[in-house]
Amino acid sequence: MMKYSVWNILKQGLRGNRDWPLMWREPAPQEQYDVIIIGAGHGMAAAYYLAKVYGVKKVAVLEKGWLGSGNTGRNTTIIRSNYLLPGNEPFYEFSMKLWEGLEKDFNYNSMVSQRGILNLFHSDPQRDAFARRGNSMLLAGADAVLLDEKLIQKMCPFLDYDNARFPVKGALWQPRGGTVRHDAVVWGYARGADQLGVDIIQNCEVTGFDIQEGICRGVETTRGPIKAKKVGVSVAGSSSKVMAQAGMRLPVESHVLQAFVTEGLKPCLPGVITFGAGHFYVSQSDKGGLVFGGDLDGYNSYAQRGNLPTVEDVCEGGMAIMPMIGKARLLRMWGGLMDMSMDGSPIIDKTHISGLYFNGGWCYGGFKATPASGYCMAHLLAKDEPHPTATAFRFDRFQKGLMIDEKGVGAQPNLH
Amino acid sequence: MIIDHPLLGPRDAAEFVYLGDARLINRPDWASLDADQEFYEYLYLRDNPEGQHKELWYHEQGDRSWLVVTRNTFTHEIINVELAREVAQNSGR
């Protein structure tokens, strides 16, 4: 397998780029695997770490569509580790550290760009809340800087500082936050996993589980039954549908989240910017488009498209902090399915069925978590115990009252 | 989405607030022996189907009635709208 390097780019360029190998094989499913992972987003990361770190040999990743057809291609590409609660923050900081070494690790350019993330605040109490969050981040080994209005004016002269209702008072800045090229993450993981012997099986939808006497022994798929010692489910918005095939009801609702990109503009945003008084976040892609989004539509949906009132709401948020965005023309908008959990935090855990493992409930924060989610899922699958940074992401936390509710809104998934 | 309100006629869904699965009408009995388990399932577990879904919508910017809307979660088609009060009464509450 060819390593990507400057030397190889020169060599292949001189030969007319004819000899680049395919990035991964397209194997037919075998009869049996040690581990099957359903879903090739976070699941692809899990397969990569399972093969690389935990040395599991026979691994398959089953994907209903093609690589990148699900939420891999429907996010807003932001990475950050600016969480408050002790159950969350060490995990997301672990993810951030994995992002920082990712491209060298799997020898693939994922365009990890640590251009920083600014969470604007607009009032004194919000400053206090953000200072607390920043301290919580520092305690977990992340980076956080509290900026006042003058410093932000230097970084972002285009914000609406005179906004009568929501004046910009400052921001919590995480310089190590940023953006990543979304497709290239799953492509890099896929290529890396494939080189380590993982079978990536696309266009293979799971239609049922082979569960006998409380033990999961494999899956039924559109390409025939496949046996496995362990099965991991990592299917985001479709979590409830897939786990219903195993007879489980989840603490999850599926909701649609819309995102938007404008025509390409010259570089104008220094990094990621979020609005503290509404829900709006924006960054600029390397192609120049402003990528932005806001709230969920708010009702259960499997439609992968939303409605116009939310579009209006998101654009109002954008206009409130950044009036210049009104001059940009919208190029595309899309919707993705979010597996909204009951406390806004994810689940990486065993199930009551032996050999069946679940990874989901990522709400709309799954993209940044991809490396750590995969790593912790791999740890769980290999060792049958949670990774030290993911011990709080349990199924039974709802029953035991150990919720990780960052926003403090209770069991109301459309508000997280 | 347009919700055909049984009293007010067709109204924009933006006037409503969404709560979720209409099963929330049927609160478990607090005095039951399994109340712990029943309330856990009531509060936290959802069927979350793709397809027909009965759900509670609150007409906040209208007459403040609670509605049970039967809606397809894949097509967003609204199939039926009832007053939640009547649904609850018909189920014996």
Explain how this protein is built.
The complex is a heterodimer of chains A (416) and B (93). Chain A has two domains: 28-77 and 182-250 and 346-415, FAD/NAD(P)-binding domain (3-Layer(bba) Sandwich), CATH 3.50.50; 110-181 and 253-341, D-Amino Acid Oxidase, subunit A, domain 2 (D-Amino Acid Oxidase, Chain A, domain 2, 2-Layer Sandwich), CATH 3.30.9.10. In chain A, the strands form three sheets. In chain A, strands 1, 2, 8, 9, 10, 11, 17 and 18 form an eight-stranded mixed β-sheet that branches. Chain A has an eight-stranded mixed β-sheet with strand order 5-6-4-13-14-15-12-16. In chain A, helix 2 (42-52) runs parallel beside helix 6, helix 2 (42-52) packs across helix 9 and helix 3 (89-106) crosses helix 9 (366-383). Chain A has helices at residues 6-14, 42-52, 89-106, 124-139, 149-155, 182-195, 239-244, 308-321, 366-383, 397-400; strands at 32-38, 59-62, 78-79, 117-121, 145-148, 170-174, 178-179, 199-201, 206-212, 215-221, 226-233, 252-264, 272-275, 280-284, 289-300, 330-341, 347-350, 356-360. Chain A has 416 residues and is an alpha/beta fold. In chain A, 52% of the residues are buried. The mean pLDDT of chain A is 96. Chain A is 28% helix and 26% strand. Chain A has ten helices and 18 strands. Chain B has 93 residues and is α+β, with helices and mostly antiparallel strands. Chain B has a single domain, classed as 2-Layer Sandwich (Folate-binding fold), CATH 3.30.2270. Chain B has helices at residues 35-44, 84-90; strands at residues 2-5, 9-12, 17-21, 52-58, 66-72, 78-83. Chain B has a four-stranded antiparallel β-sheet. Chain B has a two-stranded antiparallel ribbon with strand order 1-2. Chain B is globular and about 45 Å long. Chain B starts with a strand and ends with a helix. The model of chain B has no long low-confidence stretch (mean pLDDT 96). Chain A binds chain B through residues 240-241, 244, 249-254, 298-303, 307, 309, 342, 398-399, 411-414, and chain B through 1, 12-14, 18-21, 36, 40-41, 43-50, 53, 55, 71, 73-76.
